[in-house]
Amino acid sequence: MPVAGQIMHRGAECINKTETLTRAAEMMNRLGVGALPVCEDDGRMCGIITDRDIVVKCVAEGRNPSETECTELCQGTPQWIDVNADVSEVLDRMERHQIKRLPVIENKTLVGMISERDIAQHLNEHQIAEFAERVYATA
């Protein structure tokens, strides 16, 4: 079975927690992604911001994304996985926390991101269906 480092999308970038949501949206657009890890000044991950977060938690609430910092939308403890973790661990983490994207860390540094697409390319149909059921299940 493959490990996280073999299925991840390389080249993930962090955005500093004090950057604005406008800057986050610009980065997402440039990178062609829908989520960015949010990092402290020392590079330690403190959350994830998604394109949906920007729309639903900022724009739809009448807030200005040019004046709202990424840290304002980050909630809870960010989830991540080690680059050498088995895919079964990746699935378990994503299913348990009902998350669709998972940062991959090597030596305390962000090295990639695993998305639903990455998972789908490495599972059989039954595993994909089980993954989708667990991640999208409503509590």
Name some characteristics of this structure:
single chain; 139 residues; alpha/beta; CBS-domain; 3-stranded mixed sheet; 6 helices
How would you describe this structure to a colleague?
36% of the residues lie in helices and 22% in strands. With 139 residues, the chain is of the alpha/beta class. The longest helix has 12 residues, at 125-136. The chain has a single domain, classed as Roll (CBS-domain), CATH 3.10.580. Helix 4 (87-97) runs parallel beside helix 6 (125-136). It is built from six helices and seven strands. The two termini are 30 Å apart. It has helices spanning 4-7, 21-31, 51-57, 87-97, 116-120, 125-136, and strands spanning 9-10, 15-16, 35-39, 45-50, 81-82, 101-106, 109-115. The strands form two sheets. It has a four-stranded mixed beta sheet. The chain has a three-stranded mixed beta sheet with strand order 2-3-4. Helix 2 links the parallel strand 2 (15-16) and strand 3. The protein is globular, with a radius of gyration of 15 Å.
CATH architecture: Roll
* Corresponding CATH superfamily: CBS-domain
Span of the ends, CA to CA = 30 Å
The name CATH uses for the topology is CBS-domain
Largest sheet: 4 strands, mixed
Task: Please sum up the structure shown.
The chain has 139 residues and is an alpha/beta fold. 36% of the residues lie in helices and 22% in strands. The chain contains six helices and seven strands.
